[in-house]
């Protein structure tokens, strides 16, 4: 009895979406389950069996890791995207990849509906649904955690466990952790539970991906990252010579190194799109290394004024991505300029990783804007010091006029 | 014979400004030497004797440390000022304090001229002179390193040493280092010499202030920083209970801790105001800790939209300061807004310092914008999940219209 | 029988809010009617009688014209606020004045609820309610046009007329116009009805306030507007010598002149906050003159860089005001900077009004930044042409480096 | 005797550049004269004879009108470029076209030098020379008005007239006007002389291009402008049916109409790049009409958020162009985004021209973002009013939190 139509459900294999799957069936929908492999730690085949056992008509498991890294993460690297000066947008960046494929499957399967397990207070519901609507304006969304029949029936974890038991849904986790996580190959996030007090220090055993800097190796490791047009194209370990050139490979290798050396943990209070402040802890090992290197190679290869304009739009782009507007004209607008700017961002950065530190040790580029002769303090290098004289005097004209005015208005100058 | 008039010279005690002092006298000027104590390591009394011995009429040594920290550094902290995403502006911030007092002395001494030892290619000449002209539009500037008679006579260090020997100027340094430095209580900079190749890794013994993270203590140290209106008002060491409340004291104590724990080194290629790229290495121990803490307490206490506007103006403010426009209407304009925003930035941040890492462990405020009930994933807290539904649908309207248009224009949607 | 509590209703005297008043009573609320006099053409005493006749417990009629002009309109003038490059924000600016007093009355009367007659698709509902919630976070809002019981019962004007007849509500208008209007002393807006086709030219008889330029006097009229700190303090008619110095008086006089000379009509497609495009026609006579004059006096008295920063702020401020966020930290943040900037904006602008044109004929200020000697093409005025040489050469350094890089990357320069 | 090398001189045919030509020859240079036809009123053949008579080796007269309109002016239209909110950048936009061809000729002729007749205080010297250096970093510039030997020898017009008489240079003008002008097909500027007092009203006979609105026809004229990708592709006169589709033709036709109907005069105090305020009067007939139409069609076809970002970019772009940085990476950066945005800016605007007014009467587009059903106040159009409820409540969350905080900090809310 699937009289209400067909739903493509973003399925994680966990308790929540398993109960949602069962509930949708109970409500009279036919359900196609969809799992995106974006690099999270997961037993996909066990999850497939579980979904089928609960009653999904079909289960799609899509490996989106390469698309995620090369199509989205590297664009964010080009833009130096960073939310509120601190957060690398790990969850936000995964959403466009997931939603795009979910709509493709929904359309292929003839689904009228898509569904997800996001809560009603968070950012993810917005990101999922804006993506859905932008890609397919006619799609209908079922968000159970915003439907009173659902959220009043399942006011907490015990109610879900009861329902799972009743429906014969296997529950793998023996004990739930006192926080929530979201993981992909770019990052893992921790929030809610004990973290809801922003003054509580996260327990040491919460952090899952990255070695505590205090436990990281006492010997640093040195690498080089090669960029072309603002995207990484090669990573070389200067110690053992290991070299990666494939986008996904090199990213996973940077993850491995960041995790080993304690690089990429943060703990912040951030501003959600819906106007609430929330506390999040994040581990983004490879992304942290990559951003430091990209910012550095831009120092050598990107024009000053372009950098300033780009930096203003990076801030706005980060908000756009955080708020779920990846599929929007404003993202296209900004990225057109960013891509133009990255034509010159090619070169190599040399780095040292040590106990949480990403230390730049040098950089080089065949198309550097750095001119050692003109920069030199010791030689003229085609530079006439007298030019500075005129430059300063012209720049002072405006200030001299202002201080005279200020003195008239306030009675004193600076 | 001082027929050309009286000069107030910004004197450092080093070889360059000692030769400039002698040269100005030789040229027929009377010279008043002025040394600003902004926290640099210096034997001020020895420098005084030296200036008098060379022939200065008078020597002023002014302790500007408190004014520097409380009047300038803390304003930069309020604004999260950071040049090109990395550099804390240590040299730029000292200049306004130095120039203001130099003009005060020049006026008191009836000097027609001020002079400095900055080179003709750098930022500092601009910062000094824009400050001079803004404070006293009628002042005249003598910049010997831009005067052919001077710079052609002294093409390098040997010529200066010869001149010093001839003039009986004592030279303290036995061997010059292969780089230049500029130090104050906020930071030390290293540039020029071997650093002119941006791919050369700075030698370990170059770094003067901060312990190499590899040599820093293996035991972390925990502190709290208390803010009022965006300025630090108390630092407490949670281990030994040491507490500082005076602005200068607490800043020097943060410096001590940062230096001990390897916090605050960077190595960058930056864009000078005059359009040249240059490579600089910087150590800013206390400032690095303070900025991390201030950014964090703003997460808890500053409104999202104010933060975004402020962040755009922080970028511009950093350029203004870097380029030497501290005494300008544009700085006053931005700071008026920043000060308005900091009225709510009060609270305490708890931090751990460990081998180069500044790790936030929690934060609290009596005027927090964080509402744990509304932020909670487990309880409703006055939040109706159905509201998100309308919020998302309204936000999607624009995207749906756009994708229809995009499809008409390009033949496909997202 | 008022068992549901007490409501303070923003009452206009028109059909919609009269029916809402009757309906609220029918639903079991006690209703206090509130009319804001913000300069609209209205028979307030007739409206008072009508509200009392329908059943309002009390009717407040508040003259907010002076507060509107001096507290809000003049702030917008200081900021050169303009939405989407064209629209002077006439409706948006009135809302804060109305809501603030409405909440004051609601609190004084012990009302739990406030209500208004705004539709569910427009901007005004947002502006009213964000104002309510910001001023009194505990207030409850009744928005009948978003309540299905109401809007389904009254699907169009005939249903409202029926209800009015049934309830004995007098209806003044004999025939409704095929568009809607909103009027205050700053402007009148026209939208909806036949204007919903953006390609329909508004009929000549729609425009109510301003003489059609084709019918305006063939003789121009000349005035002077005097500003202090960016606000107008005196208007003088150079023909007849008429002089106004009171804020409200001078604004109403500028309105009179603008209406007479055909100044201040626009017709645009604008972007509503809720993501819909809509077409609006507006008449803003005095505001159009005032903005032209203020922009002009800033040319003489405001520093270039402050102007640029302020212009960026102005765009954002206009969005803030348009979207209903007058009572917000972001408006306070921006206005702090704007007020700082306006300290120097004092002087007099001379204008000619003629058939839709506002023609600047000259300007003067005792604290002008304009220096005729330095600006002169004929005399040196303390300017050394050689300084421009250095200025240009320094500015070219960056471009020369870039074109070399561009040539390497793309194979050709500019 | 041309021992010093070969110069390509930007030659206008006027007194200044004729004297410069003679002086360069006298100084020992060989001179190739170059005249750009950018639509100014000029007898080019007479000027050619004059240059040859004075002693130019060769004279190039290049018709750059099409390149100017289609390559530069229409890009500015796409961006809505406007300097300081008022000025359409008529002089600035012509410079890139002139300099690019000048360098092409200089290279073809083997010139080591280029020269121009710009003064040492203005913007044009900067625009010419930054263009020269960006296109050919190795070019050398001779700017006589900044060379003491030249400007001290010719302190005013009488000295130039003497020199011209001595050199046998014919002087066409019998009496110089008490202001300077610069003309091209986009605009004419007036500055200096009697205009140096910003409070002097320009005399009626100064204005050369545009009919005084008071003398313009009393009958309005109606036209349509068709845009594709933000550029005008067709202009139709609705009265007589005249139609233009070629870029240059339609622009010249808009000029004709603007001049006839008194459209496009301004009088401002602007900020020069070198920090001086100056007073300029401008007539830009076609450009004023085109900008009004382009802004309007964007209302119908450009996404709200893209428009906001683009508007910020437009302000910066206008500064870039005004300051002479057309050939720069920052212009390329911004234009990449602008071009992306203009993909959807296609449609037709209907306008009325009348005595200085450009009145929009309607607009239409096959790819409009305007949806009359959803915009309608009368029908639901797929819009659920309840959605606004959630939208407003979510937007209020942040304000409610802020007012509670504000009350704690300041003792009162809004």
TrEMBL record, chains A, B, C, D:
Top EC class, one word: ligase
EC number: 6.3.4.5
GO biological process, alphabetically ordered: argininosuccinate metabolic process; L-arginine biosynthetic process; urea cycle
Pathway listed: Amino-acid biosynthesis; L-arginine biosynthesis; L-arginine from L-ornithine and carbamoyl phosphate: step 2/3
Keywords: Amino-acid biosynthesis, Arginine biosynthesis, ATP-binding, Ligase, Nucleotide-binding
Domain of life: Eukaryota
SUPFAM superfamilies referenced in this protein's UniProt entry, alphabetically: Adenine nucleotide alpha hydrolases-like, Argininosuccinate synthetase, C-terminal domain
Any GO molecular function: argininosuccinate synthase activity
Entry annotated with the keyword ATP-binding: yes
Boundaries of every Arginosuccinate synthase C-terminal domain copy: 179-402
Domain named Arginosuccinate synthase-like N-terminal: residues: 6-170
GO CC aspect terms: cytoplasm
Stated family: Belongs to the argininosuccinate synthase family. Type 1 subfamily.
Subunit structure, as described in the record: Homotetramer.
Protein name: Argininosuccinate synthase
């Amino acid at each position: 009895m699937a009289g209400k139509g067909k739903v493509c459900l973003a399925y994680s294999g966990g308790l929540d979406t398993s109960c949602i799957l069962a509930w949708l069936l109970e409500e009279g929908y036919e359900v196609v389950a969809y799992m995106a492999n974006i690099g999270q730690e997961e037993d996909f085949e066990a999850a497939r069996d579980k979904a089928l056992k609960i009653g999904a008509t079909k289960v799609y498991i899509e490996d989106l890791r390469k698309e995620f890294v090369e199509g989205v993460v590297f664009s964010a690297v080009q833009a130096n995207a960073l939310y509120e000066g601190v957060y690398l947008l790990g969850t936000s960046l995964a959403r466009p990849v997931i939603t795009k494929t979910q709509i493709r499957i929904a359309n292929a399967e003839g689904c009228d509906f898509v569904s997800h397990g996001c809560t009603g207070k968070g950012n993810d519901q917005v990101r999922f649904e804006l993506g859905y609507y932008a890609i397919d304006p006619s799609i209908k969304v079922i968000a159970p955690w915003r439907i009173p029949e659902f959220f009043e029936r399942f006011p907490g974890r015990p109610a879900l466990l009861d329902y799972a038991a009743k429906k014969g849904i296997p529950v793998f986790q023996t004990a739930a952790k006192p926080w929530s996580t979201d993981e992909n190959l770019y990052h893992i996030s921790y929030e809610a539970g004990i973290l809801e007090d922003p003054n509580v220090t996260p327990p040491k055993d919460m952090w899952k991906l990255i070695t505590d800097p205090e436990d990281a190796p006492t010997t640093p490791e040195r690498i080089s990252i090669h960029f072309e047009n603002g995207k990484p194209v090669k990573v070389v370990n200067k110690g053992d010579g290991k070299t990666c050139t494939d986008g996904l490979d090199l990213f996973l290798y940077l993850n491995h190194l960041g995790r080993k050396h304690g690089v990429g943990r943060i703990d912040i209070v951030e501003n959600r799109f819906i106007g609430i402040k929330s506390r999040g802890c994040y581990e983004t090992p490879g992304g942290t290394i990559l951003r430091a290197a990209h910012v550095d190679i831009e120092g050598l290869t990107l024009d000053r004024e372009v950098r300033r304009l780009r930096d203003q739009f990076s801030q706005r782009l980060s908000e756009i991505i955080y708020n779920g507007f990846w599929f929007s004209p404003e993202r296209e607008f900004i990225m057109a300029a960013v891509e133009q700017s990255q034509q010159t961002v090619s070169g190599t950065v040399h780095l040292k990783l040590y106990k949480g530190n990403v230390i730049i040790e040098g950089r080089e580029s065949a198309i550097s804007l750095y001119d050692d002769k003109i920069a030199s303090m010791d030689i003229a290098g085609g530079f006439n010091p007298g030019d500075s004289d005129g430059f300063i005097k012209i720049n002072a004209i405006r200030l001299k006029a202002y201080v005279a005015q200020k003195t008239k208005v306030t009675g004193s100058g600076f």
